[in-house]
Design a protein that fits this description.
Strand order of the largest sheet: 1-10-7-4-2-3
Shape: globular
Strand content: 5-15%
Number of domains: 3
Largest sheet: 6 strands, parallel
CATH superfamily of the largest domain: NagB/RpiA/CoA transferase-like
Number of strands: 10
Number of helices: 24
Structural class: alpha/beta
Length: 484
Amino acid sequence: MSGVDLGMPSFPDAARRAVRDAQLRHNLGKATNTIRNKRAAVVGELDDWEQLRASGAAIKTHTLSNLDSYLERFESAVTAAGGTVHWARDAAEANRIVTELVLETGETEAVKVKSMATQEIGLNEALSSAGISAWETDLAELIVQLDEDRPSHILVPAIHRNRSEIREIFRREMAGSGTPAPADLTDDPVQLAEAARHHLRDKFLRARVAISGANFAVAETGGLVVVESEGNGRMCLTMPEHLISVVGIEKIVPTWRDLEVFLQLLPRSSTGERMNPYTSVLNGVTAGDGPSDFHVVLLDNGRSEALADEIGSQALRCIRCSACLNVCPVYERTGGHAYGSVYPGPIGAVLTPQLYGVESEDTASLPYASTLCGACYDVCPVAIEIPELLVHLRNRTVRQRKGWVDRLTKTAMRAMGWVFGDSGRLARAQRVASLGGGLFGERGVGRLPWPLSRWTDARDAPTPPAESFRQWWERTRTSDEDRR
C-alpha cells in the first residue's frame, strides 16, 4: 500500500486539524476559486461540452470493457516501435523493475516528469533506498520535494503553499541539492520561476535517465501522450538517453482519433485553458532523435480488482484533471493531506479505497469525506458518478465492519425498521419526539449524550417540531366525518 500512509490519522482526525489552519484555508480558497472560474469560462465557450463529456465517458467505458485486448495491442505496437513493455502486478514489482532498469544504465540519478503513478507506488523512496536520486522537474513537485512535503492536489501539488512560503523553501533548501536560490530572491512569481529554472537546468543537461508517467497510452500506435504546461516534460522526454514510463493500465485509449476528444476535455477541466502548452507524444525509438532505449511499465496495483466492481469500475475513467477537487467544499477546507493518499479530493475518496481496499481505517473513512452535494459529478469531464460511488463504497465499508460498533449499528437499524414498519408505531414515536420541541425551545438541541453526540458534535441537529406533519394533516385536512 505505498500510496496510503497507514500510520496517518483517519480522515476525520486529519481534517479536524486541517480546518483549524487559517493560512491553509486561505491558500486553498484563493487557488481553487481561481482555477474554478477559469474552467467555467472556457467550458462555457463550447456548445457541445455535454456531448464531449458523453463521448469521453463512452470511450473510456468501452476501453475498460475490452482492456485486455487493448493492452495486448499496445504492447505489440510499443515492441514494434523498438520499445520494451514490462508488466507490474503491484507497487513492489513496479519499483523493482524501474530500479533495475536504472541500475543497468550505471547512473545514480534521474529526472522525472510529474507522475501520479510513481507517487502512488512510492518510486522515489524505492530509488533512494537503492542509491538513486530522482529529481522532480515540475515546479510544484520541486517545491514539495525540496520541503520534504507531500503533494496535496492532483494538478497543483503545492497548492497549500503561498508565494512567501515558496520563497523561503527555495532559499533554505535549493543549495543542498544543486544550484542555490539567489540571495535577493523575492516572492515575485517571475523570480521564483527563474530560480527553479536555473536550479533544474544543470539536472536536465547532465541527466541520462528520465522517468515519466503518461496521460494517455494509445493502443493503435503504442504512443505515450504527456500533456504539461512548463516544458519540463518535453526536456525529460527528449534529452536523456534512457526513458522509463510508469503507466496505469487504465490510461489506455484505443486509437489516435480518440485524443481529439480528450485533448479538448483535459486542459479545460484541469488548468482552465483551451489547450495545454505542451503535448508530447513518444512513439518508440528513433535513431538520433530522443532516447536510445524506451521502457514502459504497465501498472496494475489494484486496478484489476476495481475493474471487477460493476459500479466502482467507473472511477478508472478518471483522467486526473482535478476539476472535482476545485469544486469540492470538503477539499477546499481540509486540503489534500487529510486524505492520506496521493489521490485527494472526491476522486481520491472513491479511487483510493478501491485500489487498497476498505479494511483499514485509513481507507474506510474516505467515502465519508463528502457532503454528497454532487458538484464533483457536474464538473467531471468523463461523467464519473462520484456521489453514487461514495454511497456504494460506504455500503461496502459498513458490510465489512466487525465488532461492537457493527452490532450497535445493526441493532439501531433493526429498531428503526420496527418503528417505520408500522404506521401506528411511527405515529406514537412522532408524538414522543414532538415533546422535544417544548423541551429544547428556541435554544436548539445542542449536544446530546453519547452515542447521539457523534451526530451533534459534527452538525446542528434541528429542534423537533411541536407538531408532526401527521398531526398537522389530521388537524387541518381531515373532516369531522373522517375522524369519526
